[in-house]
Hints:
By secondary structure, this protein is mainly alpha-helical. 80% of the residues lie in helices and 0% in strands.
Amino acid sequence: MNKGRIEAFSDGVLAIIITIMVLELRAPHDATFAALVQEGPRFLSYLLSFIYVGIYWNNHHHLFQIVKEVRGRVLWANLHLLFWLSLVPFATAWSDETSFAQVPVATYGFVLFMASVGYYILVRSLMAVHGKGSELALAVGSDRKGIFSSALYVVGIALTFVSPFAGLLAYVVVAFIWLVPDLRLEKRFH
């Protein structure tokens, strides 16, 4: 099966996710810097979520540069990933609307955790299609970075019940870990 359709569909879904998130931003009613500063937490929340969607788009793009073919199981794994990413705008908005209360921030972390699980399943599905000795399998290896990131989400979710800020900080750390595209994949196709 041609991989072009899965890439195009995923790009479209991710673009819609970003559009939904930006529509949640509201311009202040007052024409003052103080009113703009009041929107700061909402903007920072949007920025973090935008970065996360961008990270997934970037790594998805790199992943599919190595991929030669897809099958039905890959399509479902990709939809699973996109499902969790489609909940990012909801989790972001809920966190914003509740002034970053514990349960919404933990939910935000859970959505990020499940997206990481979805990406892991997608990679494993692609590796099953391409084989253990494939270029993809060799590039991904044991995926310590991905597993560490997922564990850090769990820590962040737990920390949220101590302090929502501490949970958010853990999510920010994961984002920083992934800001540089997955070099294991990038080295294979450049």
